[in-house]
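Assess this one:
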Amino acid sequence: MDFDLKFTEARDPATPFQCLMALTKHPEVEVRHALLDNPNVLPTDEDGKLTTSLLEALAREFPEEVTVHPTFVLHALIEPAKEMGEVVVHVVGRTTDVGLIEHVFRTWRLDDWRVRRAMAQNPNTPPDTLRLLSNEATESNGYVRRAVARNPNTPVDTLRLLGNRGTESSWYVRQAVAENPTTPEDTLRSLGNEVTESVGDVRVAVARNPNTPQDTLRILGNRGTESEWYVRRAVASNPNTPPDILRLLGNETTESVGSVREAAKKALEARGLP
């Protein structure tokens, strides 16, 4: 009985807006989905501005359905309204529709950096769009470029540019490259060397990356080539660190910091190594 009542309420144009909002938290997905059939899903306030909170909530759960909803098509794609920014963020960050992503990029790229960041996060975003969103010359917002750096489908050539201090000035973007499991070994080598990467937090990310080559882990785990103790401690936690490096890190004569030695000893014990 309750299901039938709430389902009817969700579609009824006479249902007060606050009640519609409450139905976005109803336990039955069919009731929540029925809200998309309500003609008041995107009302206007007394000043004529769009009230997007209901459509935002639905976009979080039903992004693909929202992409074809008449209100979204009109106010986000045909006659873009700034109030729709948050709705567009939720849709474009998850949609699998490449054509929609490209359309939104052309329509919204100059208006809202959050939309560009959502596109940068989406693994379905075309490589050419990711390239534009990754270049400081065409994308000034570092949070957008960081999202590209974290994207598992970002092209290797783009990751190389984002991981190069000469072409990417923001350390937190390079850190994201260092964390990406698809980053090529040559870039990890560059980011994992104090000579070519001065920021310790970036080198920590390299030290933790399970795909970091062992020759780089040797550099990062050696007090003679890596000055920051917290980087060396991160090396101890990497499952691919060679046992001889773990022994160096766990030895008082070669490692002066107690927490590093402790981490190395725990790693050796976990592997059943002396």
Observations:
- The chain is about 60% helix and 0% strand.
- Residues 184-274 form one domain.
- The mean pLDDT is 95.
- The first helix runs from residue 2 to 11.
